[in-house]
Specification:
This protein is α/β, with parallel strands linked by helices. It is built from 13 helices and eleven strands. Helix 1 packs parallel to helix 11, helix 2 packs across helix 4 and helix 7 packs parallel to helix 9.
């Protein structure tokens, strides 16, 4: 399946098709006061046919940038798969986040609402308690205010795997890059656990916030994107800072055939000696 020139995949067991690449809430969207640049990136993503749009209250002005566009042309929002998140751990806090998010985005529903950045087992317990955030997510899905719910994490693969196993979720957002192929955990434990429950898998931290780019070693944005797309994921999201970066994202998604295993192994070998230090987004044990 394709939308414009972008391949689509089914989003887990939801029955919803989404483009294989999505616009992340980082890049220029994670700023304040850069309306012209942010709008240029969003407009290019829409023009290129990207349907998956990521954001979160924690991402500076990203919700406001997107909401200003949907406010002016509401029908453009209905054509996309819109996500957001909440890092609140209580029922009441999560519900307040949802109300603010919907108002800021100028929409009356989310396609996906995610429990954001779960880091330790104490949080897992709190979120799943009687007054925890999970109850808010389940109620929101039951009411139709959000169509699907998920969880995100990049701190500890054991914690994220436990969330996937314990909670009745539709998706998981996790880091996918050569560093993770070296270290194991997110790709070897969390991802299979999600697939066993027919959950959608969304890839983030693909470029390591730009820190993994080294063109002299062949570590280009295109190579790292192709590596992520070659894994067992439904969507790869990347924050973009310019329309050119959106074009590169879409162009890479359209490249065939998929990256061969020998090339994947070459990239992994480059990162192998430094993987522990380069997993800067993981917590220290």
């Amino acid at each position: 399946m394709r939308r414009n020139d972008i391949e689509q995949s089914m989003f887990g067991a939801t029955g919803q098709a989404v483009t294989r690449v999505g616009l992340g809430g980082e890049g220029v969207l994670r700023t304040h006061g850069h309306h012209e640049q942010a709008h240029a990136v969003v407009e290019r993503a829409l023009a290129k046919g990207i349907t998956y749009f990521d954001t979160a209250p924690a991402y500076a002005g990203s919700e406001a940038y997107l909401g200003s566009i949907w406010k002016d042309v509401p029908e453009r929002r209905t054509a996309i798969f819109h996500t957001s998140k909440s890092a609140q751990r209580s029922y009441s806090g999560a519900m307040r986040d949802l109300e603010r998010t919907l108002a800021t985005l100028h929409t009356d529903y989310l396609d996906l609402w995610q429990i954001h950045d779960v880091r330790d087992m104490d949080e897992v317990t709190t979120i799943g308690s009687a007054d925890g955030a999970l109850r808010a997510f389940l109620e929101a899905r039951e009411s139709g205010v959000v169509r699907h719910i998920g969880v995100t994490g990049h701190h500890d693969p054991d914690v994220l795997t436990k969330c996937v196993q314990l909670w009745p979720l539709d998706s998981v957002l996790l880091p996918v890059n050569p560093v993770e192929a070296v270290l194991g955990g997110f790709l070897t434990e969390t991802l299979p656990a999600a697939r066993n429950k027919s959950m959608a898998v969304v890839a983030m931290k693909v470029l390591g916030g730009g820190h993994y780019l080294a063109s002299e070693q062949g570590l280009t944005a295109q190579a790292l994107l192709r590596f992520a797309l070659a894994q067992a994921v439904d969507v790869v999201i990347v924050g973009c800072s310019s329309p050119y970066e959106v074009d590169l994202l879409v162009q890479t998604a359209g490249m065939t055939p998929a990256m061969e295993e020998t090339e994947q192994a070459r990239l992994v070998d480059i990162f192998r000696p430094y993987a522990g230090k380069l997993a800067f987004y993981r917590g220290k044990k």
